[in-house]
Amino acid sequence: MRTFPKDFIWGTATASYQIEGAVQEDGRGPTIWDTFAHTPGKIHNGDHGDIACDHYHRWQEDIALMQALNLNGYRFSLAWSRILPQGRGAVNQKGLDFYSRLVDGLLAAGITPFVTLYHWDLPQALQDDGMGWQRRSIVDDYVAYADVVSRALGDRVKHWITLNEPFIFSVLGHLLGTMAPGVQDMPNVTLTVAHHALLAHGKAVPVLRANVPGAVVGTTMYLQQLEAASDSPADVAAAARADGFVNRWFLDPLFKGSYPQDLAETFAYFMPPIQPGDLEAIRAPLDFLGVNFYERRVVKEGDEQPFLNFSYVKTDLPRTAFDWEINPDALYNILMRVHKDYAPTAIYITESGACFDDVLQGDAVHDAPRVDYLRGYFAAALRAVEAGVPLKGYFVWSLLDNFEWAEGYSKRFGIVYVDYATQRRIVKDSGRYMAEAIARRAP
Ligand code: FCB
After folding, report:
1. CB 363: neighbour CB atoms within 10 A?
2. What is the dihedral of CA 121, 347, 332, 305, to 10 degrees?
3. Is residue 361 left, alpha or beta, with left meaning phi > 0 and alpha meaning psi from -120 to 50?
4. DSSP-assigned beta bridge partners for residue 395
């Protein structure tokens, strides 16, 4: 049988604001997501993360679930404002203690922690000071935060992920305004935010290495497989622009030390303020690239996307409840492409998964579409390993159904169902399927 390597990491991924709840406990400071979620009209159904999956109180049960599902890795994020309630300055020991206990619990269960430093829940105090990521000195705030947490956890946590998806939080948070902090501004703001995020990443890398013996440092990017609707030069060029913005705008600085020239010309009026030394810092050598992958999109020349002049074309492949195309080959293709064009030392799929309209029936959730989805995507990942991609692990999004940002609790991504009324966890068929796949190391 064709199998994944023995040391492959099988995990699930989560994010602090999406699962923890306990937003006012043990000294946690408010974040931009608390503010955004409590702004009327921003979130489906008026939902918010005040309780979420109550993971802050149920983390032991959640680790036991991971163990029962044969998982040997767990990617989670730290809530910056639990540790530095004002974003900088005084350290809140109780916040650090929570993560320290979580890490100890994971290690005792044989689960390797992968810690994300920033998964979108910026301390509100830092947003109030010069609009958060728009202010260049946020880089210093971020590096100081990375220093505090890596000193505290670095004796046990080796795997560090600096950022989650700067493309998404710069574009949805600062151009479209559909995510926190809900800013709708000109593209120069988006690109400034993205530049500061990349710079914060680059400047934190040496700090993490200095503080953590045997550090394995990476970052996580949102990647899309973008394909042209036709062979026409206009559509091919449109696909190149879309790919340039979503993928190359972030991967080129990380791995090549420059923004892509073609896009820089398109964005001439909107370029971020790049200072001498920035691009060198951003290109700090990485131990791995984290790939979050959800979608292939087909594009043609058009006016749906201003500035970049492309439109999306809907395909007739099956789709998830988010209306995202199901297409395992696209995962294979994006992994091959990243390997060929950027050659990261190692790659982890740090998120991949699907939401469906799950139904709880007694004690079971028969989520056959998610089982098929995982089987197809695991097979694509295995093909990539066999083709020579240094893929070292696969984190399914997500362990639990959780607060899906602007969609609130309406979109379920978990391999474990959460009954929000009681906080009862019910392993879905997809959870059982994943446990079996891990045991046989094959889809
Ligand atoms: C990703 C996010 C993650 C989750 C999934 C569905 O973009 O990183 O938090 O919301 O989408």
Report:
1. 9
2. 40
3. beta
4. 11
How does pLDDT run across 287-320, given as a tens digit for each residue?
Answer: 999 999 999 999 999 999 988 999 999 999 999 9
Go through the domains of the chain in sequence order and give each one's CATH number: 9-440 (3.20.20.80)
Residue type, 155: D
314 CB contacts (<8 Å, ≥6 apart)?
A: none
Whether residue 426 has its Cβ less than 6 Å from ligand 1: no
Residue in this structure with the two tokens 């990375």, named with its chain if needed: 146
Dig out the tokens for 306 from the structure: 């201003």
Q: What is the CA radius of gyration of the chain?
A: 20
Residues listed for the chain: 443
Q: Enumerate the H helices of 8-71 as residue ranges.
A: 16-19, 32-37, 55-68
How do residues 168-198 score in pLDDT, each as one tens digit?
Answer: 999 999 999 999 999 999 999 999 999 999 9
Is 295 an active-site residue?
A: no
- Confirm if 10 and 393 have CB atoms less than 8 A apart: yes
> What's the CA-to-centroid distance between 413 and ligand 1, angstroms?
9
User: In 3D, which of 36, 307, 334 has the Cα closest to residue 188?
Assistant: 307
Q: What is the pLDDT of residue 436?
A: 98
Closest ligand 1 atom, residue 411 Cα: 6
The model carries a pTM of 0.98
CA of 320 to the centre of ligand 1 (A): 14
User: Of 407, 236, 426, 225, which Cα lies nearest the Cα of 315?
Assistant: 225
| Annotated catalytic residue, options 20, 165, 227, 295 | 165
**Any atom of ligand 1 within 6 Å of the Cβ of 190:** no
Does the annotation mark 165 as catalytic?
A: yes
Q: How far apart are CA 219 and CA 199, in angstroms?
A: 12
Residue whose token pair is 């680790």: 63
| CA 121 – ligand 1 centroid, Å | 13
Q: Is the CB of 15 under 6 A from ligand 1?
A: yes
